[in-house]
Amino acid sequence: MRILGIDPGYAIVGYGVINAARGRYETVEYGAVTTKAGEDFGLRLLEIYEGMTELIETLQPQAAAVEKLYFLNNKTTGIGVAEARGIILLTLSQAGVPLFEYTPMQVKQAVTGYGKAQKHQVQEMTAKLLNLPDIPKPDDAADALALAICHGQAAGSNVRRRLIKINGGISNVL
């Protein structure tokens, strides 16, 4: 299964694509779609849409894993990220790519075995699981690869496969 992991943002949208088969993962590509600070926000959203459309057309993912948002202190930034995330979800839906959402805690649990792991621990384990010599950069790409691994593990279970069939591709269950 080819999985596109996405770490949403409006300045940087991290992405990572892996092939997952029988508990093994192979990196296809990773990087970021970036927008310029100070540019009109509507144009930034358009750049994200165009960048994501090109990625999907080029890499042909069979599933997408997107991080669920949570807000602690900065709600203003959170609103912008939520708007960018909406554009990402729209782009995936238009392309017919099945969407799966995971919380940061679910990703940490899947990648490290501990739901409260530190960011650097998740990044180091992501690099190890993908046999990469270094932690992927930017950090947003490393986070996106971790999301893809999380879905690879979740989609590999019989229970998860049944839930995916029942829910038609969109599932928040894990």
Largest sheet: 5 strands, mixed
* Estimated share of beta-strand residues: 15-25%
Which parts are unreliable, with pLDDT below 50 for 5 consecutive residues or more?
A: 170-174
Find the structural class using helix and strand composition: alpha/beta
Q: Give the termini distance in whole angstroms.
A: 19 Å
Shape: globular
Question: Tally of extended strands?
Answer: 5
Q: What kind of oligomer do you see?
A: single chain
Q: H/E element string?
A: EEEHEHEHHHH
Helix percent band: 40-55%
**How many helical stretches?**
6
**How large, in whole angstroms, is the Cα Rg?**
15 Å
Strand line-up across the major sheet: 3-2-1-4-5
Compute the average pLDDT.
Answer: 89
Question: Would you mind describing this structure in some detail?
Answer:
This protein is of the alpha/beta class and 174 residues long. The protein has six helices and five strands. The protein has a five-stranded mixed β-sheet with strand order 3-2-1-4-5. Helix 3 crosses helix 4. The C terminus is likely disordered.
Which terms would index this structure?
disordered C terminus; about 170 residues; five-stranded mixed beta sheet; alpha/beta
Concise synopsis of the structure shown:
The chain is α/β, with parallel strands linked by helices and 174 residues long.
Lay out the secondary structure:
Elements: E1 2-7, E2 12-21, E3 24-34, H1 41-59, E4 63-67, H2 75-95, E5 99-102, H3 104-112, H4 119-129, H5 139-155, H6 158-167
Parallel strand pairs: 1-4, 4-5
Antiparallel strand pairs: 1-2, 2-3
